[in-house]
Structures are given as structure tokens and as C-alpha cells.
Write a structure and sequence with these properties.
Largest interface: A-B, 17 and 16 residues
Number of strands of chain B: 5
Radius of gyration of chain A: 14 Å
Shape of chain A: globular
Largest sheet of chain B: 5 strands, parallel
Largest sheet of chain A: 5 strands, parallel
Number of helices of chain A: 4
CATH superfamily of chain B: DsrEFH-like
Strand order of the largest sheet of chain B: 4-3-2-1-5
CATH architecture of chain B: 3-Layer(aba) Sandwich
Helix content of chain A: 25-40%
CATH architecture of chain A: 3-Layer(aba) Sandwich
CATH class of chain B: Alpha Beta
Strand order of the largest sheet of chain A: 4-3-2-1-5
Distance between the termini of chain A: 23 Å
Strand content of chain A: 15-25%
CATH topology of chain A: Hypothetical Protein Ychn, Chain: A
CATH topology of chain B: Hypothetical Protein Ychn, Chain: A
Number of domains of chain B: 1
Shape of chain B: globular
CATH superfamily of chain A: DsrEFH-like
Structural class of chain A: alpha/beta
Number of domains of chain A: 1
Number of strands of chain A: 5
Radius of gyration of chain B: 12 Å
Oligomer: heterodimer
Order of helices and strands of chain B: EHEHEHEHE
């Protein structure tokens, strides 16, 4: 592709029940490294991917957290978190390991309509 | 870019329908396929929710999936529009983007 595309990745799954979260994240970072305009959204159980103090060592899974700390280096445009998903899980900005833009669902709907591509985990 | 939201999981087991409704804009449409179709049955726990959706957004169901689950056309919440596989394809062309909630 010669043209830069806007890509939105919607993360709705918790991080350690399967490897999907990590794999989709790898895809997002790869697209971003190839200079497409990539943004990430965390909603539903996806917000659990960016919670602080994750330690999956005892269940033999790779910790997903360090990947997120590299988001600026990879040129990810925006990281959005849907507000209601956070609230439903008793979470707020302080619980997150990265600085994210907390947005209302309606705003997310408008953002989705502006994308060239939407991907899901 | 109006979006066609595709939901394929049962609303009694998953929150896909609720999550989709939070973000769906007025110019978008929803189609229920596979296990999601049961949400459109009259008298189900989502009966009122489906009626509320229909006041704002177009709602379709994939007819072969409805029939497969023993639901007759007259048992669907009024206003829900059944489409065949061909109609489903046409919808994906009409709406520029699609988003699958599974």
C-alpha cells in the first residue's frame, strides 16, 4: 500500500484467557511501524489489558504490559478507553498503566465512522 | 462512513449487543446473525430493547439463522427486517464500513 490508511483496533477481550489480545496488538504495532495511522480502543473486558500491576508469571503467560509502554515509539496516534467499560469494572484513569483518552461511547461511534479500517481482537 | 454492525453472539451469553448499542450512530444499521438472532424474538428478555433500537436504527436479522432456530417470521419483534444471504451481502455494500461484535 502506498497510501497511509487510518486503522482502528478495538480491543474487547481480557488479556490472558487467550493469546488473541497479544496477537492483535502485534498487528497494530506492525501497521503503525509501516506508517499507517493506527489508533487503539479498549472497551468491555479489553480495558483489563491496560490495568497496572499485571503479573501472569504464575500462569505461564507473557506479560502484555511492557508492549503498551512502547506505544509512543511505534507512533500509535491515539489510545482511547471507553468510559462506561472502565466504570463497570470499578476502574478509573489511575488504574491504567498508560495515559489514555477516556471517551464516551457515542464519541467512539463517531471515531469509528472516520476510519478506513476497523480491526477487532 | 455509516457502519453496518454485525452481531453474531447470543445476548444471553455475551454483552456484544449492549456494547454495540453504546457506540452505534443514527445513520448506522445492525444485523443479527447466527446465535444473535434469538434477541429479536418476541417475548425474549431483549424484546423491549429491540423495540427501543428500532426507534433509532434499522435492524435486520439473517433469515436462514432465524429459521434454523425455530423462530417464525411472525414471532420476530415488529419492525425487525429479515434478509437472506443475498440481502446481507447487499447491506455490506450499502454501508461503507462493517464492524463485527462477537
Amino acid at each position: 500500500m502506498d497510501q497511509k490508511k487510518t486503522c482502528l483496533f478495538i480491543h474487547r477481550r481480557s488479556p490472558y484467557g487467550s493469546s488473541r489480545a497479544q496477537e492483535v496488538l502485534d498487528m497494530a504495532f506492525t501497521l503503525s511501524a509501516f506508517e499507517h495511522k493506527v489508533s487503539l480502543v479498549f472497551m468491555d473486558d479489553g480495558v483489563l489489558q491496560i490495568i497496572r500491576d499485571q503479573d501472569p508469571s504464575a500462569i505461564g503467560m507473557k506479560n502484555i504490559s511492557p508492549t503498551f509502554r512502547a506505544w509512543e515509539d511505534y507512533g500509535i496516534e491515539h489510545i482511547y478507553v471507553e468510559k462506561e467499560s472502565l466504570e463497570m469494572r470499578g476502574m478509573n484513569q489511575m488504574d491504567l498503566l498508560i495515559e489514555a483518552e477516556i471517551i464516551e461511547a457515542d464519541q467512539l461511534g463517531k471515531i469509528m465512522e472516520k476510519q478506513d479500517f476497523i480491526f477487532n481482537d | 462512513m455509516p457502519i453496518l454492525h454485525i452481531i453474531n453472539t447470543s445476548s444471553t451469553m455475551h454483552s456484544s449487543l449492549q456494547s454495540c448499542l453504546r457506540v452505534a450512530q443514527k445513520d448506522s444499521a445492525i444485523i443479527l446473525i447466527e446465535d444473535a438472532v434469538i434477541a429479536a424474538k418476541q417475548g425474549s428478555h431483549t424484546d423491549q430493547l429491540i423495540k427501543d433500537i428500532l426507534e433509532k436504527i434499522k435492524l435486520f436479522v439473517l433469515d436462514p439463522d432465524v429459521k434454523a432456530r425455530g423462530i417464525k417470521s411472525n414471532q420476530l419483534v415488529q419492525g425487525v427486517e429479515p434478509v437472506g444471504h443475498d440481502g446481507f451481502v447487499r447491506l455490506t455494500v450499502k454501508y461503507e464500513g462493517t464492524q463485527t461484535w462477537s
